[in-house]
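pipeline stage [seq->struct] | target=N-acetyltransferase domain-containing protein | organism=Enterococcus dispar ATCC 51266 | residues=146
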Amino acid sequence: MPQKIIDSEDEAFQFFYGDGIDQFRNQKDFDQCFTYSKEDPDMLGVAYQINNKIIGMAGCNENGKYCCEIGINILSNCRKQGLATKLIQKLTAEIMKADMDRIPVARTEFSHTESLNAFINAGYKLGWTAISFEKETEISHLRNRK
């Protein structure tokens, strides 16, 4: 049974900065929030908690000189209640408030419709798309396997 998300309880949201982010490094439930990369360092995160348990989190890391990329995870039993959208909005507002001189962006696969919808509902617009191809020889090889 899904856990009920409390609507707009500011005290249920908690921000994490700098070194405070590292505590989530090996938590599989939140593997899309942070990169733990020296090349693209994590900047900040926001979590939503119920009874002191984090059920959703969004984080951002540097992505080039002018962007920061947002990643998000919601526990499976707490999805489809608008929490992802709220976390994206909170994180985006904090990025803008901190005046990081960076544009928040998100990247996901077209098949990840829940993520796409969460960002669209948070006010994001589709900015670009990418399609990748494999060499024909590789595809032919896979088709001819028995």
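stage status: PASS
auto-comment: The domain at 13-142 is CATH 3.40.630.30 (Aminopeptidase). Residues 1-5 have pLDDT under 50 and may be disordered.
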